[in-house]
Amino acid sequence: MSKEQVKQIFQPNPEFAKNASIKSMDEYNTLQNKAIENYEGFWGDYAKEKLDWIEPFTNTVDESNFPFVKWFEGGKLNVSHQCIDRHLDTRKNKAAIIFEGDRGDKQVITYLDLYYNVNKFANLLKEDFGVKKGDRVVIYMPMIPEAAYAMLACARIGAIHSIVFGGFSAEALKDRIEDAEAKVVITADGAYRKTKPYMLKPVVDNALKGKTPVEKVLVIERNNEEVAWVEGRDYSYNELIKNKSGKCEAELMDSEDPLFLLYTSGSTGKPKGVQHNSAGYILWAQMTMEWVFDVKENDTYWCTADVGWITGHTYIVYGPLAMGATTVMFEGVITFPDAGRPWQMVQEHRINQFYTAPTAIRVLHKMGEEEPKKYDLSSLKVLGTVGEPIDPPAWKWYYEEVGSSKCSIVDTYWQTETGGHVVSPLPGATPIKPGCATFPLPGIMAEILDPETGIKSEVGEKGYMCITKPWPAMIRGVWGDEERFVKSYFGDVKKDGKAVYFTGDGAVYDKDGYITITGRTDDVINVSGHRMGTAEVEAAIKKHPNVAEVAVVGKPHPLKGEGIFAYVVLKSDDGVADEVEEVKAINKIIKKEIGNIALCDDMLFAPGLPKTRSGKIMRRILRSIAKGEEITQDISTLEDPSIVAKIADMVKS
Ligand code: WTA
Asked: Rounded to the nearest whole angstrom, what is the distance from the C-alpha of residue 317 to the centroid of ligand 1?
């Protein structure tokens, strides 16, 4: 037997493949070869075919100032026009958004409704708040249709939105507002979770205390709970929207005008404002919807992400609407009132494509293994996963019980920075191996490279997941920090002497060329499919006055994928009795600085940390200890090698 585990292969359903947008591996290879032979032609043709240009572009790609790349220069368009106006002739009465609230309330928003709602919203921002092209608008919203209106209204007038996930704390919101220098915040009083109201506006109030660039706050009434009000700053959306005109001319945008910022964790304490621009981003959002989810005209598509993450941007709002699809938005919790909720929704809305995270699949599997059997899931055609590797038991259950062994599972690998999928199966073409993201999508030159030599990795040899040519939806910058942009993504790997984009992930080829993502190579951990910078969590913990030192690492977690493990060295160690209090106090700080999503799963009060003589903390050792592994690394170079055994004993006990 070879060392390589032989994986079972699942062929696409032939009935499905017949009508799929890409029907076979031959077709896939033809497309990818076309891109290899004539990269500009490949992308230029798609940009002409798929986008509704108000003025045509003159140059497909300009790489002369790499990594500052320009796509489709000279072209003018508007992303809200691409997502709404251009569908009105053929789809005005088609559902654009189907909304299901936490308490089961439902709303269908047609493309014509969407047009009016977005136009009114855009007029409000322009007329009442003076928002202009290029201004930054922070959106801190629950999962309600108004979140999509807000995004598209910004796009319509050329404002740059920056959505902050509703689970982030006031401090985290404040940092992002300040970094983007946002002048407006759009929020809601709150929303519902498990039928109970929860609040967002008070978090915004706290984030705006003291000096702030924010001049106006727009509050959407969702749960009608009482909220504090600052006269002259806070305005009710429900009041202002009443007398707005339903027509707002879409701003003429250059292909490379920024569309949005989205802050994401990196390997330093400060999140990065990832910038995406108009034409390239929307082109790839639309193309991947068509290729990877294979959404047809009469389909209903549901992605369970939150608009606060990139998945919600590209695959709840921009991608589906750009192609004229029907997208489901869900406010609630997928395990409430029980783990049958998503399957009940699939049955009721006759969902055809369902896209979620492995964490959600694991939880649904654990809490409701038999639930899918209770519902009619026969409408499903494609199942998707995103955010982290999917483990075999979860995959098997998803494939057999949810998809009745007839749906392809698309394990989509991508990142905030890539804008859309980059490595993924195509549901009508790719023979699937569970846990493999399989192959680069056509047009994406994704390769696993040896970080030292820049040569393509051998079969079975772990390398770095890189993308060797710019692609249209590629990150265009880190807001306000050119140097960080270049250093973070183009500093690690060179191919043929030229810097290439490095994702931060490790990956490996199998003998058939399939790509498996092995996880981050940097100090970013993946908690429930969400990126968390260990440095961010460390910075929060360090704010506790009794903390001398801290190191945070990831540790495998049965449901979350990875959990957060913190090693904390206290200034004064008053014994076990106080440790419980210290944990509480530290968690309170994490909650305040970042939010509940960064709370530690494990916290160990250590007598010291394994450090080199130059003072560098050896996280690799701490990761091994957290996993309960035997330490095989050479520890003789540590300042105090005995600390390793001490900590390991503490973890074991
Ligand atoms: C991880 C989410 C394995 C990876 C869209 C990446 C994955 C990070 C997969 C990006 C997958 C995403 N298999 N790992 N299919 N998809 N990842 O920016 O580590 O929130 O770098 O974007 O998630 O997370 P982000």
From this structure: 19
For ligand 1, atom 22: residue with the closest CA:
415
Same domain, 102 and 193: yes
Ligand 1-lining residues (CB < 6 angstroms): 264, 309-311, 386-389, 411-416, 437, 503-505, 517, 520, 526, 531
- Ligand 1 mean position, distance from CA 173 (Å): 23
> 147 and 18 share a domain?
no
Does 300 fall in a domain?
no
**What percentage of the chain reaches a pLDDT higher than 90?**
91
Span 344-369, pLDDT tens digits: 999 999 999 999 999 999 999 999 99
Which of 217, 90, 229, 232 has its CA nearest to residue 150? Answer: 217
Instruction: Look at the chain and report how many structural domains it folds into.
Output: 4
Residue nearest to atom 24 of ligand 1 (CA): 415
Residues forming beta bridges with residue 556, ordered by sequence position: 562
Give the Å distance between the CA of 480 and the centre of ligand 1. 24
Of ligand 1's atoms, which has the minimum distance to the CA of residue 264?
18
Residue 183 Cα, ligand 1 centroid: separation in angstroms? 31
Domain, as residue range, for 474: 446-520
Indicate the pTM of the whole model.
0.95
The CATH number of whichever domain residue 11 belongs to comes to: 3.40.50
- Ligand 1 centre to CA of 112 (Å) is 35
How far apart CA 642 and CA 653 sit, in angstroms, is 17
- Asked if residue 395 has pLDDT above 70, the reply is yes
Q: Give Dmax (Cα) for the chain.
A: 73
**What is the SS3 assignment for 343?**
helix
Residue 46 reports pLDDT greater than 60: yes
CATH number, domain containing residue 550? 3.30.300.30
Predicted confidence band of residue 637 (pLDDT cuts 50, 70, 90): confident
User: For residues 348 and 332, what is the distance between their CA atoms, to the nearest angstrom?
Assistant: 16
Choose the residue to mutate in 505, 524, 528 for probing ligand 1, maximizing ligand atoms within 8 Å of C-beta: 505
Question: Distance of CA 202 to CAs 171, 199, 234, 411, Å?
Answer: 12, 7, 12, 38
Beta bridge partners, 606, equal: none
- The two three-digit tokens of residue 83, written as one number: 């997502």
Atom of ligand 1 nearest to the CA of 309: 20
580 close to 652: Cβ distance less than 8 angstroms: no
CA of 516 to the centre of ligand 1 (A): 12
Q: Are 244 and 218 in contact (CB under 8 A)?
A: no
Q: Spell out where 359-407 has E strands.
A: 382-386
CA 141, chain centre distance (Å)? 16
Ligand 1: residue of 314, 414, 423 to mutate (most ligand atoms within 8 A of CB) is: 414
